[in-house]
Design goal:
Number of strands: 9
Shape: globular
Helix content: 40-55%
Order of helices and strands: EHEHEHEEHEEHEHHEHHHHHH
Number of helices: 13
Radius of gyration: 20 Å
Strand content: 15-25%
Distance between the termini: 58 Å
Largest sheet: 9 strands, mixed
């Protein structure tokens, strides 16, 4: 890595930006990070052996700003190992992953760090989000997605299992808690497992302003890779496990997190019950060929942004009635 920061003040936040062939939006992402009102951060960029102008762009910014450390991988490690590479514990109390195509409002870092400083029970802080297109134009929000906060680990675990789309994986996280997780696994959907693990260790905190701009475009991973086998290769080219086993792998990793992480016995049991429920419903959906049917049902039934405080209890009751009716 270039740029020694030994004589600089220790950063408050480390931002890890893994990238592969990201010349299309990389400049906007880096500029939005450098424009933050909280300036005491370190940006670590890991270039996964890109073949476009990514290296040139990264070196240009690294030469310009001493807060940027650029590393170029000799070969494509796959997305999961590259994401894990940029998390280097011990450099700062807080860590955040950044995507090469998302954009931050200038006040994002400051407000998320203040939330974590003032709320020790929170393991992650994130803001409300806008959706932007390839041109950077705002066209929607994530207001109707299921929020991941809750007073109990089992409640937060349930929410992660059934959330539709979540940008919280790009929130600011406590480094000492993140190091207790398995980070990103080399299997499809491992970001959801990682999110579940860190939220078993602490609550989710939200800044009630839209300071995160999530870009949805035709060249994104989700848009280009349509099947699990292709997605698995994107996560890690060296993994041989067939994509069709993704559900089994995820279930196994969820179970490992529940049993490995420090939880009260009652919460461990509650999480296992939620996991069994999830496994059964997902299994049925695979057999009938109606993927995400139950998740879509929940989304139609409950307006997440306006749900009452007891909506989780209502959902659990509804789930019990559904099982009895079946």
């Amino acid at each position: 890595m270039n740029n020694s920061l030994a004589d600089e003040k220790a950063p408050k936040v480390v931002i890890g930006l893994p990238v592969y062939n990201g010349e299309n939006y990389l400049r906007s992402a880096i500029e939005s990070i450098l424009d933050q009102t909280l300036t005491n951060f370190l940006l670590i960029i890991s270039d996964n052996a890109s073949t476009d102008a990514t290296e040139e762009i990264c070196r240009e910014y690294a030469d310009r700003d001493r807060r940027i450390i650029y590393h170029r991988q000799r070969e494509n490690l796959g997305a999961a190992p590259n994401y894990n590479f940029v998390f280097q514990p011990g450099l700062a109390p807080y860590f955040k992953w950044a995507a090469h195509d998302d954009v931050l409002d200038p006040d994002y870092l400051r407000q998320c760090v203040e939330l974590l400083d003032n709320n020790p029970q929170c393991s992650v802080a994130h803001s409300l989000s806008y959706q932007i297109n390839g041109k950077g134009e705002i066209y929607g929000t994530h207001d109707k997605d299921l929020r991941l906060n809750g007073s109990r680990p089992s409640e937060r675990f349930w929410r992660v299992l059934w959330a539709n789309h979540f940008t919280e994986i790009f929130g600011v996280m406590r480094s000492d808690l993140l190091v207790q997780t398995k980070l990103h696994g080399s299997y499809v959907g491992s970001d959801r497992n990682l999110m579940a693990e860190i939220l078993l260790l602490g609550d989710m905190g939200y800044v009630e302003e839209r300071l995160f701009l999530h870009r949805v475009h035709s060249q994104s991973y989700m848009a280009k890779l349509k099947d699990n086998a292709s997605r698995l290769k994107w996560f890690n080219p060296k993994v041989k496990t067939p994509g069709r086993l993704a559900g089994y792998v995820k279930f196994k990793e969820y179970l490992d997190g529940i049993t490995r992480l420090p939880l009260p016995v009652s919460e461990r049991v509650a999480c296992m019950n939620n996991l069994v429920e999830w496994g059964m419903r997902r299994g049925v959906e695979v057999m009938v060929g109606d993927r995400d049917a139950y998740r879509k049902k929940l989304l139609r039934k409950y307006a997440w942004s306006q749900a009452p405080s007891n909506f989780t209890a209502n959902l659990i009751e509804t789930t019990a009635k559904d099982r009895k009716a079946a």
